[in-house]
Amino acid sequence: MDIGYEVIRSRRNLAPKKGELAPDFDLSMADGENRYRLYELCQKKPVILIFGSWGCDIFRETLAGWQELYDKYHEQAQFVFVYIREAHPIEYVNARALGRANDPKTLEQRKETARACQKQLRLPFLMLVDEIDDPCAVRWGAWPVRTFMVETDLAVSYAGSQGPWGFRPYRGYVHGSGKQHEEDAGYDWDTLEEHLERRFATNHSTRQESASSGNPASR
Predict the structure, then answer these.
(1) Beta partners for residue 149, in sequence order
(2) Closest residue by Cα to residue 166 from 153, 152, 147, 149
């Protein structure tokens, strides 16, 4: 566990902050050979990035809330899960109760684990896989779990605080003390849900008004 927290501390501030240009990436899909760059994904609508793994109990605890966010906002933003290094590999004795897979040693093994994760958890997101030497997770300060939102102009509009304590996808979910660590100053402490409500408030209001007026073009 001490080693894990040292990794978190050493990378946490590599992550982009709100208003900064998002670091690009070029990652392969879990279930195919196609590759995607972040900058390509952002061309049509904003992208919500979820960094995590099957072995992350914090992510698994929030699945129902993520499904609600996806159902509400997937037309306005694309949800992209970036599969990174296992948070709790089951080969480590103290992680067996939390883990779901061994720590992959090759990209193909990580893709296989990502596919199994997506199938069992029924994740509706586009699933991309970080390279085995973790360049994306390191650059985004994303291990073991973290969330961002990138706009079509490639600016970061939501930069979630460092997980696991700063992983706050929706109201009511709190891990740890519920207080932001001093080292996370400059990153968002409000939830992604609150950010999405502000970001898309006009869009939702317009659709509701159009629906109530009987405008078929809004349906």
Answers:
(1) 48, 158
(2) 147
Which string of DSSP letters, residue by residue, matches 191-211? Answer: -HHHHHHHHTHHHHHHHHHHH
pLDDT on residue 33: 85
Report whether 111 contacts 30 (CB < 8 A): yes
- Contact by Cβ (8 Å): 136, 82: yes
CA–CA dist 100, 92 (Å, integer)? 11
Per-residue pLDDT tens for 12-38?
778 999 999 999 999 999 998 899 999
What does the DSSP 8-state code read for residue 180? -
Residue 80, helix vs strand vs coil: strand
Q: Which one, of 63, 180, 167, 187, lies nearest residue 125 by Cα?
A: 63
Q: What is the pLDDT of residue 208?
A: 45
Q: Categorize the per-residue pLDDT at 150 as very low, low, confident or very high, splitting at 50, 70 and 90.
A: very high
Residue range 135-159: average pLDDT?
96
- pLDDT band at 92; cut points 50, 70, 90: confident
Rounded CA gap, 63 and 196, in Å? Answer: 17
Q: Give the three-state DSSP class for 86.
A: coil
In angstroms, the Cα distances linking 30 to 35, 146, 187 are 10, 19, 29
